[in-house]
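Notes to self, Tyrosyl-DNA phosphodiesterase-domain-containing protein:
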Amino acid sequence: MILPAAASVSHSIMDEELQKALASSLEDTTAEDQFQTDLQRALQESQSQPQSKLSPPQPMPPIETASASSKPDSFLSERAQLEKERLARQKRLRGDTNDRISPLAPTPSTSTADSESDDDNLDKPAAKRQHLLSPRQGRTPQQSRSKQPTSVINGTPKPSASSSASTNRPEMYWRGEIRQTANMHVDLEKDTKPTFRLSDIIGERSDVVFAIISSYSTDYEFAYKMFSPATPVIIVSHPATENREPSMRFIQQNWIRITPKLLYNYSCMHMKFMLLFYKPGRLRIVITTANLVPLDWRDIENTTWVQDVPLRATPIARDSRAQDFPSHLEKALSALDVQSGLDSFRTTEHGSFLPLQSVSDLRRKYDFSKVHVHLVSSLSGKFEGWPEVVRVGHPRLMKVVMDIGAKPQQGWEVTLECQGSSVGKCNRVWLKEFYHSASGASAQDWIGKPKKADRLPWPDKRGIKIIFPTLRTVRESRLGEAGGGTMFFKRADWASNGFPRELFHNSKSKRGGVLMHSKMILGTLRRKPPLLSAKGKAKCEEDEDDSVTESESDDGDSDIVERKVTGWVYVGSHNFTTAAWGSFQAKSTAFTPVFTVSNYELGVVVPVYDAKEADDIVCWERPPKSYESQGDQPWFQGESAVLNELDRIQRILHS
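result:
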């Protein structure tokens, strides 16, 4: 594909920039001084507390069109300098911004890990282009607005403890909260809702007594600074080397890294979550779409769910038959082999001081009665038999949709809007399979019955809208093509026979010219349209009856009014792919289903009760516009001259 001249980068300009970067990289003392200055600035930004009044933001530069070549050139110049500084930092700490570790603590004899490398794949997995972006290109994330938060349960404003900026008390989320992450490139006029900063989520470092965290891609220097050096931390991560065997090892004093077992060579540990244990006994659960890298908390848009859970007055007995939020969380942690990390810490000075001695202590010790979202996990592996199958992937989503009363009744259907940052091989058989589950209908209806499977309804663009940015949207974003390194799609998949191109819709953030790394699915119930007239026109009636069932509640909160569920929102790490959600195998029968999942993924499903509540939660402009109506094509990262030039510089600087 031939890009417009303005989108391509002059090699002569790039060579000049590269020569400058290489020459300056020889000045070790200057590089070290510059690194210290930049590191201090980054720490101040990431750890600053909310202000009762916002300081005036820096003027935001206008969005440049494809005819303005200064954006790629200036970005690349800054990137060359940043790369020089990063190499100086890597030399000093033996770590890098992608997934390197500085092994300052002895490796336990039980560790199966060898020395780490910086292999970081996503679509095999495809390499994630974590090009660092200059803070000079916009306002700081700290300038993102903090307004009164909205309850996840009922969508109504509630008092904010962060009106407690005057009292310095941390904001609590006892009923759960979904927000977008703070971002330095959003439009001020559109950035009107409260946001999350990582430093605000974690809070005062000295209050955190233990943490279990997970991230696909991790900048360890960035992550270390978020916690006190005395705090024991277990981090679950994707393997950083070609050796994909499960491992557990100390990577830093008080830090244990775990890489779980993966089913396939292309499988991913893609979960992004935090379990933060605080001194008074409180547990904070964080499920997010953001990795532990500065890019995800500063330059691209992500979504995060946070809820605080109190300690029980008295632990309850274990219940192996439980199917609630904590039981599913315990199963996910067990699959990740978090227990091995807990066992290792129990042999250290932390020993009996850990608030969690066993994964099964979560449900016993903590009171989850106020958690009204539903956990959905994908665990890399093969699952046989219905009790196992309905615990993972899209069959788990099916069970949740049924449990919250969102299964469409006679004459109704579900419409899905699926926002993500990666698109894979999306075949029509799998789309039918997923849509059936998202409708709350069991696969027992069609598994082992070829004729019924063939007759599963095809979810046209009324049923499924796949939301992914177009080439034009990426180019017109604040960072242009240089900011599109975390959006994955291949032209070969797009051009393949039978690919559902008609389902694709443009991804545009409500907050302006930023690209979204958020993974969300909005499912809304609507009446099936009547048969089309001869002119192809029909009008859907509004909901006037009781065909949508009421939501379930298992704790009898007096302030929760029983209302009809009109849909649901999924937020988490799942992209809209087979690798993330899993698929039934051909040898499955209605009696013995076989279901395989490639990746580890984690997210929550929130029931919604009206259209406004659903629209408030999602992060994209609605209704999304189809590619067909805009005459556009998807963003193909591999065809970007800007990103390819950045990669060329990086390879040279690493050689």
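- The chain has a mean pLDDT of 79.
- The chain is about 25% helix and 15% strand.
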